[in-house]
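User: I'm new to structure prediction. If I give you an amino acid sequence, what do you actually give back? Let's try with this one:
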Amino acid sequence: VQLQASGGGLVQAGGSLRLSCAVSGGTFNSYTMAWFRQAPGKEREFVGRSNWSNGVTTYADSVKERFTIYRVNAENTVYLQMNSLKPEDTPIYYCAARSGGTSEYAYWGQGTQVTVSS
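Assistant: Good question. You get back a string of structure tokens that encode the predicted 3D arrangement of the chain. For your 118 residues, that looks like this:
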């Protein structure tokens, strides 16, 4: 299973970006898909996830009401729509997948950099 994240870039505070994570191999609709982010020297932070079985999404409090995760099973792709971006949303974003019924994210993308300027 391979995950390819893309869509990062430079944006001004208050702007929007959409990240994509394309999955190849495996069965996409059996994976819970998640986004994490990590700034240099900091712990990796959970951003949100889309549950494989019912599509229910869960978000970290820091991004709730601003970020939206949605998946398009026909494209084997999960998206992270980020609105009202803040400078603290700046780190590298990673997508991850875990098989339904497991607790560990076994598959990770390579990361995409988001930079929000103030």
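You can read the tokens as a compact description of the fold. Here is one thing that stands out. The two ends are 37 Å apart (CA to CA).
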